[in-house]
Every structure is written in structure tokens, then in C-alpha cells.
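Entry 14. Structure prediction run on the chain below.
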Amino acid sequence: MQIVVNDEVHEVSAKTLAALIDELGYSGARIATAMDGSFVPVPSRGNTLLRDGARIEIVAPMQGG
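Output returned:
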């Protein structure tokens, strides 16, 4: 299926947000996720089903001052 991750189109086989994170190489990283504009907390990623055309945002926290 095709989804958009951080404004870039990807063809993926993942069915859930958790599987997508693994497929894209983010497993183990401290990241925040949103799907179609709604925040998805870590415990919900495994139950969050992807659909064709979904818009996913993956962001890493920034440090500094």
C-alpha cells in the first residue's frame, strides 16, 4: 500500500503503525508519531491499522538551547 511519511510517498507492506516503524528502520528510536493529524502514543501503535493513503508523521525530539 502507499502511504505518506513526513511528506514523502512510501510503498510499504506494514499493516500497523508499529510494523511501519520497524519497516522504516525506526525501531528502538525515541520518536513521536501521528496519523492523519492525530497523535498516536507508543502503546497504541500496535493496534493502529494503516490504510492506503494514510499520512504519517514521525518526529524525533530535539535537544538544545
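The two ends are 40 Å apart (CA to CA).
Filed with the rest of this week's runs.
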